[in-house]
Amino acid sequence: MPQKNGIQVVEETRAYLAEVQKQHENILILEPEYVFLTAFSTKALVAHLKKLKVKKCFEKPVSTQCMLDLINSSHNIST
User: Fold this and answer.
1) Given 12, 24, 46, 78, which is the most exposed site by the fewest CB atoms within 10 A?
2) Predicted structure pTM score
3) Residue 52 and residue 55: Cα distance in Å, rounded?
4) Helix-strand-coil percent breakdown of the chain, rounded to 5?
5) Neighbours of 33 (CB within 10 A)
6) CB 59 within 8 A of CB 42
7) How many Å apart are CA 18 and CA 35, to the nearest integer?
8) What contacts 9, CB < 8 A, 6 or more positions away?
């Protein structure tokens, strides 16, 4: 990513959501599920992501089917 890395995005998103939650205490603000795609997975990165409670991290290249499965599993919409 050109401006920030994924860890910064998670941390800043959480801080923003916490601030919004303080302003709107009567509304439950749900945090998104984060999915990391990395070219260089290391044990240190995986450990750090676990501390951040990031549940999914994939090493590139990621197959089209894997991406479709991720998208479909996170959009359980009943019709």
Assistant:
1) 78
2) 0.77
3) 9
4) 50, 10, 40
5) 12
6) no
7) 20
8) 1, 34
